[in-house]
Amino acid sequence: MLGAITYCIQGSVQWDGTHIATSMTMLALLCTMFLIPAVPGAGHEVRGNGEMFPLNGPSWSLFFEYIGNILYALFIRRLPTKALAALVALTGAGLAGFALSDVSGYGNIGIGWTLDAVNFGGGALRMLFPFSMGMLLARNFKPFKVRGAFWICTALLVALLSMPYIEGMQPVCRNGIYEAFCIIAVFPVLVLLGASGTTTDSKSTRICKFLGDISYPLYIVHYPFMYLFYAWLIKNGLFTFGQTWQVALCVYAWNILVAYLCLKLYDEPVRKYLAKRFSDRGKKQK
Predict the structure, then answer these.
(1) Exposed, middle or buried by CB within 10 Å (0-12, 13-18, 19+), for 78?
(2) Where does the chain cross the membrane (predicted)?
(3) Where are the domains of the chain?
(4) Displacement of CA 182 from its chain's centroid (Å)
(5) Exposure pattern of 2-41 as b/e (b: 16+ CB <10 Å)?
(6) Is the Cβ–Cβ distance between 87 and 128 less than 8 Å?
(7) Once rounded to an integer, what is the mean pLDDT over residues 103-110?
(8) How far apart are CA 186 and CA 93, in angstroms?
(9) Is residue 199 predicted with pLDDT exceeding 80?
(10) 10 Å Cβ neighbour count for 152?
(11) Where does the pLDDT of residue 201 fall: very low under 50, low under 70, confident under 90, or very high at 90 and above?
(12) Taking a C-beta distance cutoff of 8 angstroms, is the pair 6, 227 a contact?
């Protein structure tokens, strides 16, 4: 809904200025609600840049997560640990191959957002590697003592994500080397560190709880407002940090506020209702 509303506020136009009929916007909304991806060039691919879910781009990852859940139910959960480790190795190698050879031509691993062969295959790898790696870690996880795990992980993430784009495509994509290293080697270690750590003071506990609670709502609501921000930049010809930092800060704050409101007014009440409803149904069946 937020995606449709912000798209209409933007003027219901593609990035090249082409006006889109309201019926196509509503069709895009309906397809997004049921996670039905748009084919590039389809009438309801309303932004004109090929996104699976043009009203809210990050929904592409949910699309692949649903595929992952189906595969989990069908066979992945039944795999013995050695077979699961082999799946991790294969998908990790495939992901590294995508990154180092720059199959997409993007110069980064930002693939999966559009419905073509390269992006579908890359998006599947982006889902399958962390999905299977997470299962493997869970099966073999043995917590160990580590002081300040939250702050260590935070500092490492800030450092990793602050790295600028690395130029160079010969003999392999250098930026791909860095991204593959982070995804395949560093992030699993951060997960282990975080899972082993405990918070011992109320301040860290509150911060961890807030960040954990708001992480998904923020992820899924930020893109519609980012689209509006982009449209404002293009309309006014403002492209430097010095020209836009005040508005950018407001966009950050607004996204956090909207995400928190969605969490408290929609997400948590709905989950509480569904948990109670299905719990009561289970008791009646017994």
Answers:
(1) exposed
(2) 20-39, 59-76, 83-100, 120-137, 149-166, 178-195, 216-233, 245-266
(3) 1-56, 58-198, 201-276
(4) 16
(5) bbbebbeebebeeeeeeebeeebbebbbebbeeeebbeee
(6) yes
(7) 91
(8) 15
(9) no
(10) 15
(11) confident
(12) yes
